[in-house]
């Protein structure tokens, strides 16, 4: 049995596709996996903000993310939502202050600990989510237009695995 050629791991339509060796940092360029992920995330944020600016929603990406996390974690403590978002509690608090000022979320004393706050979306917050969700879907559809359903499934699965692995506390 012969050893596979170095190009065997590269799809035919991806000249210069990275091997595990280059993915793990032995060859560090602007096309390294970490840079590409960061670039694509920045471009998606920029496209989203451009689309949101065309509406009267007037939300930053951080505020929009906070609203999504609040709606998905309705009833959770404010600090737990901040942790899930991967931001400091004070950063999340700033997002919530702005969202609350616009009537998109409400803070309530947590039923199990009156010192803790839970954040809940208001009807207006849910309506805002309903308005910007299609914008996000359109941007992602455009960005992934050249990918097959299988490539999207594998890509999403890989990112979810990476997020889960990086979420494991070290030590």
Describe the main β-sheet briefly. Answer: 2 strands, antiparallel
The shape, in one word, is globular
End-to-end gap: 43 Å
Q: Give the low-confidence spans.
A: 1-13
- Count of DSSP helices? 7
Could you tell me the number of beta strands?
2
Q: What oligomeric assembly is this protein in?
A: single chain
Look at the structure and give the mean pLDDT.
Answer: 83
Instruction: Please provide the ordered H/E string of secondary-structure elements.
Output: HHHHHEEHH
- Radius of gyration equals 20 Å
Structural class: mainly alpha
β-strand amount: 5-15%
Helix fraction? 55-70%
In short:
With 171 residues, the chain is mostly helical.
Explain this structure to me?
The chain is mainly alpha-helical and 171 residues long. Helix content is 57%, strand content 9%. The protein has helices spanning 20-23, 33-53, 61-72, 78-85, 89-101, 123-143, 149-167; strands at 105-110, 113-121. It has a two-stranded antiparallel sheet. Helix 3 packs across helix 5 and helix 4 packs across helix 5. Residues 1-13 have low confidence and may be disordered.
Give structural attributes:
single chain; 171 residues; mainly alpha; two-stranded antiparallel ribbon; 7 helices; globular
Blueprint of the fold:
Layout: H1 20-23, H2 33-53, H3 61-72, H4 78-85, H5 89-101, E1 105-110, E2 113-121, H6 123-143, H7 149-167
Antiparallel strand pairs: 1-2
Helix pairs in contact: 2-6, 3-4, 3-5, 4-5
């Amino acid at each position: 049995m012969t050893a596979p050629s170095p190009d065997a791991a590269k799809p035919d339509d991806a000249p210069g596709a990275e091997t595990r060796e280059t993915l793990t940092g032995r060859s560090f360029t602007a096309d390294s996996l970490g840079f590409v992920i960061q670039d694509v995330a920045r471009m998606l944020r920029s496209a989203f903000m451009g689309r949101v600016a065309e509406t009267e929603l007037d939300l930053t990406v951080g505020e929009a993310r906070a609203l999504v996390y609040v709606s998905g974690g309705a009833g959770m403590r404010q600090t737990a939502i901040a942790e899930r978002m991967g931001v400091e509690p004070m950063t999340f608090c700033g997002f919530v202050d702005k969202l609350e000022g616009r009537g998109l979320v409400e803070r309530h004393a947590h039923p199990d600990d009156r010192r803790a706050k839970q954040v809940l979306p208001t009807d207006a917050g849910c309506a805002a989510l309903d308005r910007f969700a299609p914008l996000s879907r359109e941007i992602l559809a455009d960005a992934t237009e050249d990918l097959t359903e299988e490539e999207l499934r594998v890509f999403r699965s890989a990112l979810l695995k990476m997020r889960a692995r990086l979420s494991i506390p070290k030590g």
